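User: Um, what's this?
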Amino acid sequence: MIAFLRKVLLGCISLLFAVVISCNSDGAEPTGEGVQNWTPLETTNLPDKRHEAAFVECGGRFYLLGGRKVKPVDIFDPATGTWTKGSRPPMEIHHFQPVVWDNKILIAGAMTGAYPREVSLDRILIYEPAADQWTWGAEIPESRRRGGAGSVIHGGYLYLVSGIQNGHWDGWVPWLDRFDLENQTWEKLPDAPRSRDHFQAAVIDGEIYAAGGRRSSASTKQVFDLTIQEVDVYEIETQKWRTLPESSNLPIPRAGCFSFVLGSDLLVAGGESMLQRTAHNEVHALNTETGKWSLMSRFDRGRHGTGIASWENRLYTVAGSGGRGGSPELDTTETLSLDGD
């Protein structure tokens, strides 16, 4: 009976929390003018169902990589709407944010293995689309390895932001590391104001944005609970962090969300949280000049653990999980026209 009452109480708290955090100062969820809905896309062939994966554009093609189990790369040609298969990675890889450099896709800050004590990869993994080939890159210093981290490229450097050391168990870190892509050397930079994992970073006007995510804590049975509202920003030139004002907090805190840059706007899309069993379908946009969020669009199907790619003024997303946790895994592709049609 005590356990039952505890579940009811937690449910009520979660519902109340959802109402509070989804409101801005005038009591309504931030909305954009003409909020659009994403459209399911009929494609030739389907990709593998997967989540905790990555989706990125490189050379006019989209690449769906990684996820639970060892799955081949799925390659999408947006000009023909066709999915084809690429090679399999050398091992299981998941919980990472891919970056593109020199026509190659780099994977750092990834995990491998089974929940809840996944292991962080010890090296950068590289996929070369032109050759459909996987290779291992530089070693990540043993004392700085983690998964579920944000990863961005700027000025010939790869920046690795925050993450978690022990799978979903514990070991959240606020670390910021910089990898010189030419000299193949690592450098420690100032820690972020807070730790977070299960998020994606973004670079806008020489600043790194860390929004969304959580502190995954299977050790305390709080895997989905400890979401992060605050947005932290690192100015690359001055090497200083700041936290945006409370009024710029993410409207619906969630993890497993994915980020995309659209002009000077930071998009935070999808995700999972204790607020609902289904994955989130909201795509929020932060105007980095005003610090205000708006509801930019909604997915046809909520999802987490994937990404967004763009081509000819359209956005695309695919796969991910449609519910909190690992199921159901999706193989659907959706698109959004930035022209409003």
The longest strand covers residues 133-139. The first helix runs from residue 2 to 21. The two ends are 54 Å apart (CA to CA).
